[in-house]
Amino acid sequence: MTGARQLYELWADESEIDAALARSLDPRGVDALYDAFAALGPRPGDLVLDAGARDAKHAIRLVRAHDVHAIALDPVPVHVEQARAAVAEAGLTDAIDVVEGAIEALPLADASVDWIWCRDVLVHVDAGRGLAELARVLRPGGALLAYVTLATDRLEPRERAELAEATAIRTFDAGVLEHAAEKAGLTLRSVDPVGSEWRERMIEDGTWDPGEDLLQIARLRRGNFTGAEAEAAWGGAVWGIYQLLGKTCPTIYVWERGRDA
Fold first, then answer.
1. pTM, full prediction
2. Over the stretch 106-120, which tens digit does the pLDDT of each residue have?
3. Among 63, 183, 216, 222, which one is most buried in terms of CB atoms within 10 A?
4. What burial class does residue 233 get, using C-beta atoms within 10 Å of its C-beta: 0-12 exposed, 13-18 middle, 19+ buried?
5. Dihedral, CA atoms, 124, 201, 115, 56, nearest 10 degrees?
């Protein structure tokens, strides 16, 4: 254990680590997820399911980048309205169908989609039911690209409970998610722990200021705000901070449905 005298001596002197920490580690940005999808090999005319599409911005980008067709699916009516408006504004109504529906009960036929894009959704649903449905609609040989944020051993039990409650997390463990995928008949192709990289990139690019989130957290605490709205605000504010601290780990999974399925 470092003693107090040694600690203050370390803080007082310039060190090699200070210079090293001033240099970027060249973190990847959010485009890494699109690169991962491109690596799957989508072909023009293929059908992509954006499961949990929100405002369809990801579906729109995938269609434009790969000349695919897409189904933008979301269970929240306001998201469906936003998605339809965005698709119409983009002039892609012939290429993107906006559908209201839940991952746990997809209104789609068996083996009807070539690829699945699922970002920030699997943690909010029953992993077993959700992955079973995604596997069902995926054609043999197709792949599911899923981006999820999972708990690490740095996340203390109380922090975990508070964050799960505030952000409606149902599946927070890699083991639970991976077991559910295996049970659904999906084969794990790759796991890519993104960790804090995207957040580092956002800070370095000036697209996110963690100081603003920290200030909001402090104001929420000192202002004694309560209720669901306050909890949601707190969860959104600590989300990126916990990634920087290594308490949660954004992760990119690729699962494949076997051709003999």
1. 0.94
2. 999 999 999 999 999
3. 63
4. middle
5. 70
